Amino acid sequence: MQKRVAGPEIERLIQLLAKLPGLGPRSARRAALHLVKKRESLMQPLTAALEEALDKIVICTTCGNVDTSDPCTICSDPRRDGHVIIVVEDVSDLWAMERASAINAKYHVLGGTLSPLDGVGPSDLNIATLVDRVRNGGVREVILAVNATVDGQTTAHYITDLLAGTEVRVTRLAHGVPVGGELDYLDEGTITAAIRSRTTF
Amino acid sequence: MQKRVAGPEIERLIQLLAKLPGLGPRSARRAALHLVKKRESLMQPLTAALEEALDKIVICTTCGNVDTSDPCTICSDPRRDGHVIIVVEDVSDLWAMERASAINAKYHVLGGTLSPLDGVGPSDLNIATLVDRVRNGGVREVILAVNATVDGQTTAHYITDLLAGTEVRVTRLAHGVPVGGELDYLDEGTITAAIRSRTTF
Ligand SMILES: [Zn+2]
Ligand SMILES: [Zn+2]
């Protein structure tokens, strides 16, 4: 706003909302007004939820998951198979895996990928703690569920090399045609992978 | 999340963030994780900004603007021309007018438009307070800067009728080709209006 049309508190709220992923300056203004209009039903509960999150949310020192207890709900769940650790880049990937309900294992959140160009080295990621978990025994398989990007694959290779001296089996997610996916929209690499890994009908 | 993978505080934060305009369930999850990661630089300041906004933001009883003082910054600014009142549907429209810096007048925020289908009648909008402001004198012109929608125009006609007995001049925004707009993308109504209001080159 060029001219001063409101107190600085509103402008500050808009500026901070605009830093959320998915919100730009325009949608941050709309969000701020929406909050003011829904004062009782949204602004107060959201403020309280943020206060509670600030107070309670911690990073699990075992696996890197975000939770309100350390060790987290997943690490301390005895019904989960602790022989299998799924390595993901981010907590959002852990959530995506859980939504799929494909496996009842434990996790390890790297907190990113190796990226020499961005100055991200092994010590910037939760890699040493993964090696510790494997060395402490009881782990039979490490599934590298990193993204199929260059940095993701670099990170997968690095971890595979690190774990080469251990007894653990290192696996990765299969490549192929996404369920519901149309061939016409897929890149050549995916189609080639799907052909190579074809199965009997 | 099907299975319980984290404490309920995180899920609650995600649910509330998803109620913001522009954020869906997926982007709310990303926003929540972003907040947790940027605890010091974003989550704490945003929580503080919301607390301050809850504490200080009020609706101006004169014009319906959102501010931290009542009367608001605009209503109490002696450098603004109080002879002209710009009537807008929403505070976001007031902000849009201010960004354009086209006029140095005062405002009146209706808080919506008349909408018989949605059960919105004159008593649901800040219309009586507008009539009071005009009757109290000192107002020479009321600019109806409502949206060029059916409900906006219905509202404009209703207000024009209400103010018919007063001395005030009631005007509306001009229709025409948006600056930078391409004719090929404009509807027939806009082109017709632009032709009818054509000016000498
Ligand atoms: Zn954990
Ligand atoms: Zn005001």
UniProtKB/TrEMBL annotation, chains A, B:
According to the record, the signal peptide region is none
Q: Name one Pfam family in it.
A: RecR_HhH
Q: Where are the zinc fingers (C4-type)?
A: 60-75
Q: Which GO terms describe its molecular function?
A: DNA binding; zinc ion binding
Ranges of residues in domain Toprim: 83-178
Q: Which SUPFAM superfamilies match?
A: Recombination protein RecR (SSF111304)
Fetch the SMART domains from UniProt. Answer: TOPRIM
Would you kindly state one Gene Ontology biological process term found in this protein's UniProt entry?
DNA recombination
User: Which Gene3D superfamilies does the record cross-reference, listed alphabetically?
Assistant: 3.40.1360.10, 6.10.250.240, RecR Domain 1 (1.10.8.420)
CDD domains tied to this protein: TOPRIM_recR
Keyword vocabulary terms for this entry: DNA damage, DNA recombination, DNA repair, Metal-binding, Zinc, Zinc-finger
Function of the protein: May play a role in DNA repair. It seems to be involved in an RecBC-independent recombinational process of DNA repair. It may act with RecF and RecO.
Protein family: Belongs to the RecR family.
Name of protein: Recombination protein RecR
Q: What is the organism field in this record?
A: Phreatobacter aquaticus
